[in-house]
Amino acid sequence: MQTVVKLSGRITTINGNQVEEYIRSQISSDTDSLILDAENLEYISSVGLRITLKLKKEIPNTSVINCNSNVYEIFSVSGFAEMMEITKAYRQISIKGCQKIGSGFFGDVYRLDDETIVKVYKRPDCLEMIKSEQQLAKKAFVMGIPTAIPYDIVRVGNLYGTVFELLDAVTVVDLINDEDSIKEFCKKAVSVLKQMHSTHVDKKDFPRKVDQVFLQLEGCKECFSEKTYQKLMMLLQNLSEVDTLIHSDFHIKNIMMQNDELLLIDMDKLSIGQPLFEFAAMYATYVAFGCIDKNNCMEFLGIPNEKAELIFNTTFDLYYEDKTKHQKAEIFKRIKLFAYLFVLYLRKHYGNLEDKLVRDTISYSANYVANLANQIDSLE
Q1: CA dihedral in degrees (229, 234, 235, 237; nearest 10)?
Q2: What digits encode the pLDDT tens for the residues 104-115?
Q3: Does domain 99-165 have CATH number 3.30.200.20?
Q4: Which of 235, 227, 224, 269 is nearest to 251 (CA)?
């Protein structure tokens, strides 16, 4: 169990014993991870360092977070920063008056100024997710994937955000006004998708998408008959392994245009997997989430349903332009199978189950997946 203890004021020889007693009073017998939050700590003496060292020996997974510059310097000079996790406080910023340029399931994106944007995560416990996304983005950038590099983690009230440098970049949603501009965007999108889908990586460096899909299926098991559940398990288990990248959240709100080139700004779901799962996530965003809630596209993407569906269909046709009509139809069935499984999982686990639209979406998606599963014998 993780225990967080907030420190404040000054820790000196005068109050060292009381501080240690206070910290130990917050620790239970189940504590296996201790976080000392130093956000309000002004100063720590050698007494405080000895207390920290004792706690570290007793609970190896002990860390100190949110240190101001002076406190961090004391930990650093004394060598503590080399033997345990000591992190500085994240700078606080305000998004008041900032233009909101994107909204996702886990975060919203704001333009801070002409050169920078910030993605603010909706949950206060997402710091590890942010760090993971930054690492994935940097790996993708090194491999030549056109992604904006996040360079700072900040606090926005009690939430966390990650800052990107995007000089003179604009959101794609502002550029797709008619069929011609949509087709031009989709051509660029397909080029980026094919670049990712042909980028071979070391499997240990990225999560496997199929593992995430297994978890989604397990989380929705009660929505299916045992026969349908086993059929879906079999389809996934027999799917060929790959070592190429997919973005897993490729849609207009996660794409910026800079100097006539596309840049991806959301890499937290970057993984290795079949393009099937890439298009399933796209179809879910552009079409399937609106299966019952017809306002979903306008609220989430800022465009009407017809435009969203046109973007998906154009991207799909350009990507699979070498396939026959029959082959495209078979691929489309498999895409929709996992698109609706994705919708089912998110609505079931993160939606407001008291909302009739959410309940109806869950029911519709479960039936859709079950019907398609009966029509598909292989995902290849």
Answers
A1: 120
A2: 677 888 888 888
A3: yes
A4: 269
pLDDT tens across 232-278, in order?
A: 999 999 999 999 999 999 999 888 888 888 989 888 889 999 999 99
pTM of the shown model? 0.78
Which of the 8 DSSP states describes residue 106?
S
Q: Looking at the domain 2-88, which fold is it?
A: Transcription Regulator spoIIAA (3.30.750)
User: Taking the CB of residue 221, how many other CB atoms lie within 10 A of it?
Assistant: 12
In this structure, the strands spanning 33-44 and 62-67 are: parallel
Bridge partner residues of 354 (DSSP): none
E strands within the chain? 2-11, 33-44, 62-67, 85-88, 99-103, 107-111, 116-121, 150-156, 159-165, 170-171, 245-246, 255-258, 261-264, 271-272
Residue 46 parent element (H or E):
helix 46-58
Q: What is 171-373's CATH number? A: 3.90.1200.10
Which residue is associated with the tokens 């593992």? 211
Q: How do the domains of the chain map onto residue ranges?
A: 2-88, 99-165, 171-373
Q: DSSP class of residue 93? A: -
Within 90-248, residue ranges assigned H as helices are 127-142, 179-197, 209-219, 226-237
Residue 10 identity (one-letter amino acid): R
CA-to-CA dists, residue 215 to 218, 349, 371, 378, angstroms: 5, 12, 21, 20
